[in-house]
Write a structure and sequence with these properties.
20% strand; 412 residues; single chain; UDP-n-acetylglucosamine1-carboxyvinyl-transferase, Chain; 11 helices; four-stranded mixed β-sheet; alpha/beta
Length: 412
């Protein structure tokens, strides 16, 4: 019996891996994260606490910035203080703008110089605040999620907001669960949440992860293969729009119902893309731009400098190892690619323990046999089944041999 994708991190390779280049990725996969309560033993049943969790103790959120931010808002509602802490990587991530916003709503909250650990509890009074969201759109979402249980209505303005569609998505999920939340102006990032209209019990299907699915489509783009992700078009996540960028790079994109198919070409074209609506995808598009013909300009992703790594700086440093000409900008990158068939010495691309960089670099390794990806196990943060999915699409994942060339011993 196959291991559940939620529990198969034990099977991940732990040393650098290669994907022998130019083997076309082909196949149909279900978008990662899809769950059906009717037939999936991994379905969750959650019994709520009416907006006042008991609290107390410390919650280890590992390296999850999402759990930290959303947890900080919910911890403010706890009867007893809760401390949120995690990995060394997590402790480097800024959270001060969020803790200041929650304190302005009456929360008893503290951090370590604007970074984790975060300790909070005691409830929220409510009121009107402005949240500086330059570091993450999730700062705004975290405030909204806790706001129904404040003593008074909350009016929140979000300044310097990247990817506002994700905050609208949060508000839609809240409304579906019974909260009274409204955007006050279609052009201004301001929301009102009514006090006293908390969440009710619901049966909900969790959408598949469009951000992770994008990395599977990139394998087709990089190798000239064809990959279909089932159910991707049914999601409301902005990252589901990545196929439109791939089409501008020369890929074929088609839809059959909610299924999305990307067919790679013999080579990729350069692209100019404002990725502000889907900043996580700078990793995917930059990796493909490095093996494209011509010069690409990627913009609108200044927020990516504060993710698991400074993704803009790390992409510039690692993709330059391929011979690509890469220039950093405050909000993005200019990349002159090396084309799909450069002459290279063996290269190991390091994701710096960043799951999205590891998956993005897999597309480069799938195209170029001289390239290996270090720290492959870091994909477990969001998609522990990624390497198995790549194998299912026809790509062989090999450990890096001692000579610096791919080993003949295959890994799962």
């Amino acid at each position: 019996m196959s291991a559940s994708p939620s529990h198969d991190a034990w099977a991940l390779p732990t040393g650098p891996v290669t994907l022998p280049g130019r083997v076309p990725a082909r196949g149909r996969v279900t978008a990662p994260g899809s769950k059906s309560a009717a037939d999936d033993p991994r379905a969750w049943r959650v019994t709520g606490v009416g907006g006042r969790p008991p609290g107390g103790g410390t919650a280890d959120v590992a390296s999850s910035g999402t759990a930290l931010r959303f947890g900080a808002g919910l911890a403010c509602l706890a009867r007893a203080p809760v401390t949120l802490d995690g990995s060394t990587q997590l402790r480097r991530r800024p959270v001060g703008a969020l803790t200041r916003a929650l304190a302005a709503l009456g929360g008893d909250i503290d951090d370590a110089g604007g970074r984790p650990p975060v300790t909070a509890g005691g409830g929220l009074a409510g009121g009107a605040i402005t949240v500086d969201c330059a570091g993450s759109s999730q700062f705004a979402s975290a405030v909204l999620l806790a706001a129904p249980y404040a003593a008074r209505d909350v009016v929140m303005a979000a300044s310097a907001l990247p990817a506002p569609a994700y905050v609208d998505l949060t508000a839609a999920v809240m409304r579906a669960a019974g909260a009274d939340v409204a955007r006050l102006d279609a052009e201004v990032a301001t929301w009102r949440v009514a006090a006293g209209a908390g969440y009710g019990a619901v049966d909900a299907a969790v959408e598949p992860d469009a951000s992770a699915a994008a990395h599977l489509l990139a394998l087709a783009a990089a190798t000239g293969g064809e990959v279909t992700v089932a159910g991707l078009a049914a999601t409301s996540q902005p990252d589901a729009d990545l196929p439109a960028v791939l089409a501008r790079m020369g890929c074929g994109v088609s839809h059959t119902g909610d299924d999305v198919t990307v067919a790679g070409a013999d080579g990729l074209d350069a692209v100019e893309a404002d990725l502000s609506a889907m900043p996580d995808q700078v990793t995917t598009v930059a990796a493909l731009a490095a093996i494209a013909e011509g010069t690409s300009r990627l913009s609108g992703v200044a927020v990516a400098r504060g993710h698991e790594t400074d993704r803009i700086a790390t992409l510039a440093r690692e993709l330059a190892k391929l011979g690509a000409d890469v220039t950093q900008h405050p909000d993005g990158l200019t990349i002159t690619g090396v084309g799909p068939r450069p002459v290279l010495d063996p290269v190991v691309l390091s994701p710096h323990d960043d799951h999205r960089l590891a998956m993005a670099f897999a597309a480069v390794a799938a195209c170029l046999p001289e390239v290996a990806v270090a720290q492959p196990e870091c994909v477990a943060k969001t998609y522990p089944g990624f390497w198995q999915a790549a194998t299912g699409l026809g790509l062989a994942v090999h450990p890096l041999g001692e000579s610096g060339r791919p080993s003949t011993t295959e890994r799962p």
